[in-house]
What does this fold into?
Amino acid sequence: MKSFNGRIAALTGGGTGMGRELVRQLVAEGCSVAMCDVSGANMAETKRLCEVDGVPQGVRITAHIADVSDEAQVLGFRDAAVRAHETDRLHLLFNNAGIGGGSSIVTSSREEWERTFNVNWYGVYYNTRAYLPLLLKADEAHIVNTSSINGFWACLMPGVSQSAYSAAKFAVKGFTESMITDLRNTAPHIKASIVMPGHIGTDIAINTRRVLTGSDSDEMSPAEIATARNMLASMAPAMANASDSDVQHAMLEFGKRFKETAPTSAAQAAKIILDGVKADRWRILVGDDAEAIDARVRSDPEAAYNLDFLQGFGSYIAPDSGQS
Ligand SMILES: NC(=O)c1ccc[n+]([C@@H]2O[C@H](COP(=O)([O-])OP(=O)(O)OC[C@H]3O[C@@H](n4cnc5c(N)ncnc54)[C@H](O)[C@@H]3O)[C@@H](O)[C@H]2O)c1
It folds into this structure.
């Protein structure tokens, strides 16, 4: 797809981060967007920013509350988008919504592990199924699924596990890659791309906690503190003995620093993603860190989980930092 002008897109997780910047850039290029998120306030801010940027004539932006891990809500999002955009076809589907969490099969709660997996995997799967009939009716269409470098390298950083998130992101990558051949045989006007960002400056750490706990408060529960202490101790062993308030403070700082120290901004990431779609690339790495880790894993896969794997890598800071 060489131009987004006059097209209609559905996008999950449009409230902040890369989703918000994708909405802004799509709208600026003349594409109507139906977005969903769990946060109505954040989607309203995305829409307001588009209006400040200037919405081209005829372009519609609609916001729909939906939790992508719940199929009934995803179907509700799809039906509301069809009504709001008065369309029976869709050109672009961005499965972008995601959260961190579920770092360990041993110490994370089963509830957190499965919530993380379900948002990151079923969010992609349910939306693809829901929108497929509309994509099939379009003259040309593109499914853009956001995985991660954790879709080919299953740890947050050497020595720090990332269990549920990596399992889901590997699944998203496998599903998307399998669609390339599947769609070529069955619906050749639909393309599929897998997006694998490195460390991008977003509020994913803060949003993850909101989605996992349902709480807007900075006050962490004893269970959250215990999980966070485990995660921090795997990065810095002294944190195993840190007080509850130190753990809480460290997590807040971690969330802030994650956004501030990223080598790639959400706006830069959105541009790389959209340029990749226009260039018809099925494999879209986002950021120099993602490119470099991909090259390193490919050149020596057996060493990928060694503690010195990133030695000499420079200023790598872990992507996808979830709450635990
Ligand atoms: N930031 C990074 O370093 C990074 C790296 C690799 C991959 N990713 C992936 O990129 C995607 C976008 O993340 P981001 O960094 O922009 O984070 P973000 O938190 O800024 O944006 C994600 C959006 O998804 C929404 N969301 C979360 N759970 C949802 C649910 N169940 N239903 C509907 N909406 C939900 C959030 O409210 C938020 O608005 C995610 O899939 C993430 O896993 C991020």
